[in-house]
C-alpha cells in the first residue's frame, strides 16, 4: 500500500515538472528564442498542450496509485494537498533557476503554511 504512495509521489513530482514547463516555460522561451517569440498565441497554446500531454500521462496514474479506493494510502484530500505542495516546490525551483527569483521571508512563511496543511490533512 505505501509503495503505491511512494510511486504516486514520485509520479506527481515528474508530472509537476512537465506542468510547470507547460504553464510557465513559454514565458522564458519567449525571452530566449526569437522563433518562439514570433509564434502566435495559438501556437504557444499548442506547444504547451504538447508538454501537458506528458503531465497527464504521469498525473493520472499517480492519482490512481495514491488513491485509497484504488489500493493506495491517501484519501482524496490528502492526495490533493500533497499535489499542491509538490506543485509549489517544483515551481519554486523552476522560478529560481529560470527566472532568477530570490526567495524571501514571505515565500518561506507560505511554505511553512503548506507544510502545516499537509500535517493537518493527515491528522486523524
Would you give an account of this structure?
With 124 residues, this protein is mainly alpha-helical. It contains five helices and no strands. It has helices spanning 2-32, 34-37, 41-66, 76-98, 105-122. The longest helix has 31 residues, at 2-32. The model has no long low-confidence stretch (mean pLDDT 93). Keywords: Membrane, Transmembrane, Transmembrane helix.
Short synopsis of the structure:
This is DMT family protein. The chain crosses the membrane at residues 7-27, 33-58, 79-99, 105-122. With 124 residues, this protein is mainly α.
What spatial form do the alpha-carbon principal axes imply? Answer: flat
> Rounded to an integer, what's the Rg over CA atoms?
17 Å
Q: What is the arithmetic mean of pLDDT?
A: 93
Helix/strand/pairing class, anyone?
Answer: mainly alpha
How would a crystallographer describe the biggest sheet? none
| DSSP, total strands | 0
The helicity comes to over 70%
H/I helix tally: 5
Please state roughly what percent of the residues sit in beta strands, choosing from under 5%, 5-15%, 15-25%, 25-35%, 35-45% or over 45%.
under 5%
Low-confidence segments: none
Amino acid at each position: 500500500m505505501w509503495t503505491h504512495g511512494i510511486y504516486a509521489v514520485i509520479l506527481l513530482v515528474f508530472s509537476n515538472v512537465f506542468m510547470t514547463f507547460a504553464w510557465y516555460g513559454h514565458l522564458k522561451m519567449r525571452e530566449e528564442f526569437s522563433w518562439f517569440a514570433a509564434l502566435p498565441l495559438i501556437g504557444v497554446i499548442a506547444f504547451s498542450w504538447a508538454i501537458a500531454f506528458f503531465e497527464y500521462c504521469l498525473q493520472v496514474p499517480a492519482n490512481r496509485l495514491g488513491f485509497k479506493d484504488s489500493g493506495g494510502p491517501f484519501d482524496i484530500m490528502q492526495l490533493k494537498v500533497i499535489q499542491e505542495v509538490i506543485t509549489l516546490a517544483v515551481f519554486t525551483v523552476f522560478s529560481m533557476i529560470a527566472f532568477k527569483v530570490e526567495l524571501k521571508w514571505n515565500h518561506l512563511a507560505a511554505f511553512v503554511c503548506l507544510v502545516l496543511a499537509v500535517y493537518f490533512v493527515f491528522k486523524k
